Amino acid sequence: MPLSWALLVSLALAVAGYVIGRSRAFASAGTDIRKLHSRPGYHGASVALTTLTPAIVVLMLASVLRMAKVFPPEATGFAGLLALAASVAGLGWGVTRINTDFRARNVVEKIVQGFLIFCSSIAILTTAGIVLSLIFETGHFFQKYSWTEFFFGLNWTPRFQGNSNLGILPLLWGTLYISFIALVVAVPIGMFAAIYMSEYASKRVRGIAKPAIEILAGIPTIVYGLFALITVGPMLRDYFAQPLGLGSSGSSVLTAGLVMGIMLIPFVSSLSDDIINAVPQSMRDGALGLGSTPSETIKQVVLPAALPGVVGAVLLAASRAIGETMIVVLGAGAAARLGLNPFEAMTTITVKIVSQLTGDNDFAAPETLVAFALGLTLFVITLGLNVVALYIVRKYREQYE
Amino acid sequence: MTDIPMSSEAQPRSNSLLSQDARTRKRNATEKRFRMYGVIAIGIAMAALVILLTSIVSDGAGAFRQSYLSIPVALDAETLDPNGNRDPAEMSKVLTLSYGKVLDKAVETAVADSGIAIEGLTSSDTSNLISKEASAQLRNHVLANPEQVGQTVDFNVLVNGRVDGYFKGRVSMESAARDANTSPQQLQLADALKEQGELVTRFNWNFITNPDASDQRPEAAGVGVAIIGSAYMMLVVLFLAVPIGVAASIYLEEFAPQNRWTDMIEVNISNLAAVPSIVFGILGLAAFINFVGLPQSAPIVGGLVLTLMTLPTIIISTRAALKSVPPSIRDAALGVGASKMQSIFHHVLPLAMPGILTGTIIGLAQALGETAPLLLIGMVAFVREFPAAPPEGLWDPASALPVQVYNWTQRADPAFIERASGAIIVLLIFLFCMNLLAIFLRRRFERRW
Questions:
Q1: A122 to B431: CB separation less than 8 angstroms, yes or no
Q2: Are residues B257 and B173 in the same domain?
Q3: Which of A82, B253, B261, B412 is positioned for an S-S bond with B322, CB 3.0–4.6 A?
Q4: What is the pTM (predicted TM-score) of this model?
């Protein structure tokens, strides 16, 4: 690895540059150190940074070019030498710049600020990466498979030998059905828990209940998935589905929905907690002063005032439910089906992304590429929900500020 | 005060203070019911937590105990070292199969010596009593101690998964009768051996140190490679996400001018925090594996994906920590002549450190439990080799704890469900320790201004 060696050597050069720069700054100041514009440490750091920065730029360019296969791997030795030469040149230039009037601190701060701006741009790079990779591969997919059949097809039957039906509607239906059940479970429980904790509970009860609900939030989704697979699924099958004659499958819409609902309880409750606490106390005091009971105050004053925020919270929870993967992979099953029976196995967009992209992938086949189209659909849906929800929540917050 | 005429129904009430009228009683009942709903909601949430944890712990506890058969094994020199010079390099040409024969003989002798007689016990019942992994274990032991060839050594061999399950209550005599892989006679033999003390069930360190094992031998499967893989990924996240996240938050919180570019960054970060994790997996597959050409199943790719995923969490909590440092600190530093950069790096950042650390640990905990994106970048592969030490090891194939759990749920043998729950317990212990550390840091160092 000549590149990592070049990096190590230029790091050593930078350290040397720091020492040299610092001692030269002392030397140029003579007896009176106050003549220096910047403190000697900054002079040292400026030399170190001018040594390191060109080397890192060269190395990054080299590795990007190698990844893009513009030049062969044998050329990395040359790139390493080039990086070393750049850092030596930087060292020389940095050292000659040092004198009492050199504004070393400003130079160092400029470079550090550049680094800070670069780091904060990574968020944009990530989003761009997501959007580009999804759109690029989805484009490939739609060259091989008609988009009308993808968006309006009622069948999902991928086949390895080709000629598959890849309609998104059964997956979308499963996703929405499971998310709906999850919200039916999570929203009332989460809301009531939040109301009780913010309006009724004594300090002691809150001290126990709040951390307990937060623990639910910290449990990884794979744990919920396993819980659905080995506990909830068989229980629902043995005590409800089979006696009622509605199905005999352990993985079902209801299993995944119930467990996902449990997962969303802390999410809904902490969001509602924030929203309820944002309603001004004066409104509560007014209602209580007129003689309404606490529950009447909540139902007729606090909740109507908090309604936009609550809607935003439900939308955020819905976007979580739609994008959730492990619970549905382990709890919902793999059969794409358009049906109403909640005890039947159905499947979701995320399950199919996982099943189409694990194992040996052939990135020319529509059966693999469809996963990117599914991912793009998922991304657009969750992004839309989030944008709307965040807009509502922000508007609502401004109302009471 | 009002001129509203009183209707005949709303006569001034003639009730006393001591008895409530019907309407008040109704309102109070509603009030009580409303409170009850709240209590029930909290009760359901707590019950769900308790049921979830107990079901996982009761299913997974078995993975930490394992049955071993301790028998004398005669290491036959002619089969194990045909050339007779005890050179491990030459002995390694002897296949695992021959060790299996040696072991079979040892088990038969041990059973015969113990004088246990069970009706209908076949010889395959006896030889299948031990795990298929045992011969590989014996081979490794012999290759490490070649001087023992020709002697008789006491050796602890793993017991077959079904027999092990019988002692943990997973397999019963009835289910054994229907099972092609075991038989009631075999279980009776195991019972008899247990009574004689040759078969013991004890704490299973191998579960934590062993790599994964194939479908046929759940008794040998462990989470060793998965723990290493997860640790490597956390290392990558720690070295990338923390500096980048802190730098980005410092810029956004302290320097960023109000313009369209910074607005765009802010909107981006809040949206990235809500992007489903599986989308990050797709990004990892398309960008890091297909475009850049990094290897599949490598912790470096997993670490990069998790870095991008945890960055928003770290940025949001770091910004909150920076915001909580009062402006008077900055003003004081600027007032005595520090530059803006000096005031932040010398004063604000150290004061915000406890908050930043807490947020970082919570972000890491979230990354440790994440599964979905790792499935897409090939971490589901069956990996038996331990990766090398970092940094080269970051490019070696490895597994990760949550992915190992998923992997085991996809196997046919129910013994793997027990292993999966056991792996979850290991994962939850790690998460618990991380959260405890976060709480400790917050309690110990957090300052209220």
A1: no
A2: no
A3: B253
A4: 0.88
